[in-house]
Amino acid sequence: MFVDVAQVAGWVSATLALAGAAVVLLVLAVGVVLLSRVIAARREEALHQDIQAQRIDIERREQRLAERESRLDSESARLDAVARELATADEERREALERTAGLTGEQARRELLSQVEHEARLRAAALARDIEESGRAEAETRARRVLATVVQRMAAEATAEASVAVVHLASDDLKGRIIGREGRNIRAFEQITGVNVVIDDTPEAVVLSCFDPIRREAARITMEALVADGRIHPTRIEEAHERALAEVEARARQAGEDACLEMGITDLHPELVLTMGRLRYRTSYGQNVLAHLVESGHIAGLLADELGLDRAVCVRAAFLHDIGKALTHEVEGSHATVGAALARRFGESEDVAHAIEAHHNEVEPQ
């Protein structure tokens, strides 16, 4: 019997192939088992960590609960102590009432009524005190707001102010002398004084026009001096004007000193005194500005006394609050900001300077 070698080789090859496939399957099976164990181990570890975290959280909650129970126990102990004190007080009250039982009916009634009345008075006094303190606090707040509004309204901005001065003449013949040959005198007067001279058909009168009250007043004094003297020419005009300026400044300084004296202010810087005096020549709403400031200072002092504020600071701030109006013709800005800058420059306190600056709410009041 002959064996086919090729056939045997095929069987061997098939057997080896089957054996190789079996080995591969075995390896895959082992790999799957190992992978499953790794995954299971990781899941177990994650589960363990989660359980551990939950255990820690539970322990923390238990600790907080224990602390809360401790606080509740302490509060309960305190309340028990209060209850014991109340019980003791009640017992003492009962004992006191029992002692009164030995009195006559009228005496016991009077003592009981007296005790009840005393307790009622104490409670009523405490209630009245609470109401009074609450009402006083609310009233002071409202009063401060109302009074501050009143003071601000008193210090309203000037919108209309006289800008002319009239010089009366003995006769209309003087108008020609004021004008001078070819207008020489009137041009010199306007150039020297800085005001406009209006000569029209108004009988026996010359009108001086200027928005600066100091210049206008100096020009008025100059014109009156020239008319009274009768000699009108450029040199004479210049001399008369120099004397008029000195007179106006002297009057202003004296007016400022008198106003400070009335306010009881003795340490105001000389430049501020002079500036305040210049407000003698300024009007606002038909009222002399310097007189308005003196009036404001008096009112501020009264309000400070009523409200328990610093009287000296309030008076000083109210007295100076419109000082900037003396400079608004020379410096740009509102009179509040100009006045505050002037006050700071000459050593006024920040409280006073801020009050000047904020009295029209151009800056936020503090």
How would you concisely characterize the structure shown here?
This protein is mainly alpha-helical and 366 residues long.
Task: Give a written overview of the molecule.
The protein is mainly alpha-helical and 366 residues long. Among the domains are: 164-249, K Homology domain, type 1 (Ribosomal Protein S8, Chain: A, domain 1), CATH 3.30.1370.10; 264-358, Cyclin A, domain 1 (Orthogonal Bundle). The chain is 73% helix and 5% strand. The chain has helices at 5-100, 105-154, 173-179, 184-193, 213-229, 234-263, 270-278, 289-307, 311-320, 335-345, 350-358, and strands at 164-168, 196-198, 205-209, 283-284, 287-288. The strands form two sheets. Strands 1-3-2 form a three-stranded antiparallel beta sheet, with helices on one face. A two-stranded antiparallel sheet has the order 4-5. A hairpin with a 6-residue loop joins strand 2 and strand 3 (205-209). The radius of gyration is 51 Å and the shape is flat.
Order of helices and strands: HHEHHEEHHHEEHHHH
Number of strands: 5
User: How would you state the average pLDDT, rounded?
Assistant: 80
Compute the separation of the termini in Å: 128 Å
Number of helical elements: 11
Structural class label: mainly alpha
Helix fraction?
over 70%
Coiled coil: 72-99
Organism: uncultured Nocardioidaceae bacterium
GO cellular component, one term: membrane
GO biological process, one term: mRNA catabolic process
